[in-house]
Design a protein that fits this description.
With 395 residues, this protein is mainly α. It has 15 helices and six strands.
Length: 395
């Protein structure tokens, strides 16, 4: 059951990264919205998602990279292989940081829902993207409620195996002292206890012998003073969820802002979000099955997925380099050079969003002028666009 958690959480990280990079490079607002909407629709495509919820072997990183590359390129945005390498490493390290810092395996529920709900905020009400993500959210919540603590322990172990030996350094993590120069994530000591009645504050040892009551020995743990109260949060309720892992690391947001945004969405609605795409589903291979054939066949299933997701040859797109031409090299083994990425404040994000919205309004005005006979004036006597707008009573 590790596959849906890899897909949803790393897919959520991909959305975070692309949103931040698209806005920071001031790509046209309508293109940004279309790219993010298209990617979200394909991440939670009902036919693909049903397959993800079925038990299967742990996929390889090469396989998952191929899947995410295909999903990213079903939009009008065109990413090169080198840019995808960089973005995939950021996706891996972002999710790895969250998993290794969890104090309880069931906290993975909160991380996953934080990712999905953030993507849901980017979709329009009643749109196809909203319908498919709502359907996926309802299915996944139902599945996660049935998973036991022991099973979550197993899932977390599989995720750690998936992340093994991947230590790409990320400048944002390094600046915040979340990552060491060797690419490792230092664990914080202390904090709140997990929301589990079976979890006790360190300092109690029980000796069990057959046929008698356990012998209890209490001692003072040297780090007990760093432990705060036990969590009473509800992972499935965003208002009571106090775990911030899985929220956007690249565009800052306060808890109050996140809750206010979630309240504006309402609860997910269970509707049929299916599409008329042909029923072609990618097969999955385990890490051991793909060890010697990854380089040859990693994108075989991704090609089928591309057909399955309905990508048409008539779609026009734009090439996008999220990390710049000079940062387009990475070994792809999880131990490449440091990836440079800057965080963005919520205030700066809102400012850029407003600038791009204003630019779109200006384009609409220009289009209106052009269609109302402004073409001759534009090509003739008007010395500037401002003169043209004034003539039309629009400035």
């Amino acid at each position: 059951m590790a596959i849906p958690f890899i897909h949803c959480n790393m897919g959520g990280e991909m959305v975070y990264i692309l949103e931040q990079r698209l806005y920071s490079q001031k790509i046209r607002k309508d293109k940004i919205e279309r790219v993010l909407t298209d990617i979200i629709k394909q991440l939670y495509n009902p036919k693909v998602f049903r397959e993800l919820l079925k038990p299967g072997p742990l996929p390889s990183n090469t396989y998952m990279k191929g899947i995410f590359h295909t999903i990213a390129n079903t939009s009008i945005m065109k990413l090169s292989e080198q840019s995808m390498e960089k973005m995939y490493e950021l996706m891996v390290m972002g999710f790895k940081y969250q998993v290794v810092n969890l104090t309880h395996p069931k906290d993975l529920i909160a991380v996953t829902l934080n990712h999905i709900e953030a993507s849901r905020l980017l979709t329009e009400p009643e749109s196809h993207a909203r319908l498919v993500i709502d359907s996926a959210l309802i299915q996944l919540e139902d599945t996660m409620r049935k998973i036991s603590v022991a099973q979550f322990h197993g899932i977390r172990g599989l995720l750690c195996k998936f992340f093994q030996d991947r230590r790409t350094k990320v400048s944002l993590f390094l600046r915040e002292n979340l990552q060491t120069e060797r690419g490792n994530f230092p664990l914080e000591v202390g904090g709140p206890m997990p929301n589990d009645e079976l979890v006790e504050t360190p300092g109690v040892v029980r000796y069990f012998t057959q046929g008698s009551d356990p012998l209890v020995e209490v001692f003072e743990h040297p780090l007990t003073w760093k432990i705060t109260n036990q969590r009473k949060s509800d992972h499935f309720n965003y208002k009571l969820r106090d775990i911030t892992y899985g929220t956007n690391l690249y565009i800052s947001q306060t808890d109050d802002q996140r809750i206010a945004a979630m309240e504006s969405l309402g609860k997910p609605v269970s509707k049929d979000g299916s599409d008329p795409s042909p029923s072609i589903t990618p097969s999955r291979k385990s890490e051991s099955e793909t060890t010697n054939r990854d380089d040859q066949h990693a994108y075989h299933d991704a090609n089928f997925l591309q057909m399955f997701l309905g990508k048409t040859a008539t779609d026009t797109g734009f090439k996008f380099s999220p990390f710049g031409e000079n940062q387009a090299n990475n070994s792809g083994d999880g131990n490449g050079e440091e990836i440079e990425i800057q965080g963005m404040s919520r205030e700066r994000y809102v400012e850029i969003n407003s600038e791009l919205a204003a630019m779109m309004d200006e384009l609409e005005v220009i289009d209106k002028v052009y269609n109302n006979g402004g073409e001759e004036k534009l090509l003739g006597s008007c010395s500037s666009l401002l003169d043209l707008l004034r003539d039309q009573g629009l400035a």
